[in-house]
Design a protein that fits this description.
Its cofactor is heme. It is built from 16 helices and 14 strands. With 400 residues, it is of the alpha+beta class. The chain has one domain (4-397): Cytochrome p450. Strands 1-2-10-7-3 form a 5-stranded mixed β-sheet, with helices on both faces. Strands 4-14-11 form a 3-stranded antiparallel β-sheet. A two-stranded antiparallel ribbon has the order 5-6. The chain is globular, with a radius of gyration of 21 Å. The N and C termini lie far apart (42 Å).
Length: 400
Amino acid sequence: MGNEASMYALLKELRDDNPVAYVDHPDFEPFWAITRYEDIKAISQNNAEFINNPRTVLIQREFEQALLSKFGTRNGLETLIHMDDPKHRKLRNVTRNWFKPGSIEGLSTNVETIAEQYVDKMQSMGGECDFVRDIALLYPLRVIMAIIGVAPEEEGMMLKLTQELFGGQDPTQSRGENVDDGLNVLMDFFAYFTAIVEDRKQNPGDDLASVLANALVDGEPMEQLDQISYFIIAATAGHDTTSATVGGGMKALLEHPDQLEKLRGNPSLAKQAAREMIRWTSPVRHMMRTTTKDVVLQGQTIRAGESLCLWYPAANRDERAIDNPDVFDIERDNRQQMAFGFGGHMCLGQHLAILEIERFFQILLPRLSHIEMVSEPEWVQANFVGGLKSMPVRYAFNPK
């Protein structure tokens, strides 16, 4: 999905007329598209009847088969998002304390420092920049790499790998069109984080890498494949989704100048605004579940073993659950939004994402006197994690 307007139009049509739609596309194994909030919430809360394995994200049939051949699963490396209990719960507990609200608040000073660096960078660029490529992509990357313990000089490589992983359908971001190109991206991640694990076992520090490298599960060292998979999901989802929200959130403010002025005049609204930006952009487009028994949803019978695709942007614009969902409102109560998922697989890093977005706009907006788009934004072509690829802006900062 590479266009915001067409995506939401399609999802609304499905939500209104065919909320449990069977999709049989030549490039993908068949699945059911689920687009209403109540259904997605109910499925997400029931991890016994709707499991994450063996099919967690929508992958083209040919690549899915290649992953099955190489790794023995249709998902390839098994990360937290692919696991079911009891393994999921055990591995999630390894970093649970790191991502609790109190622990995240302890990172606030470091996050503010990095946010200020990127606001300063924006000011230094002379009044014009590509807000996505120059700022939104890089700021959350610096935050999560600092938390993990990746050296700043290696962030460029990590950004490239993430874009190749999540933007595999985008001709300007994918490594290549062959199945082997996609497999090589995973193997590059594997090689890089294997070296980090070995280093932190010998030289532990106070970073997340050290926690993962030396973690125990059921009293035994965590298996290497689980460690590497953990790194990959932390490094990729930990910045790509937040980057998409910072870029898409700025776009939303520019398209709703009343909300921009409200937030500029009252920075204490930044946390509420961050939550609304996350709902509005819904950067994680979907997750998949597999039924363990026959179920009936909206009059459709779904057989045991069939796949369901949960479309979060559709849930977050469902007027049956959210008042005036097509209105961008930074004062909205967003406790019901679905961008972080729901239930046992709710995003582990949600509090960090909110903090990053909140602090960035708290620092940026009071310093700006003016900002506008100078051309139409471009979108990444992606169906899993999506957002802006480019958004040139012109702006002026207030005199110091």
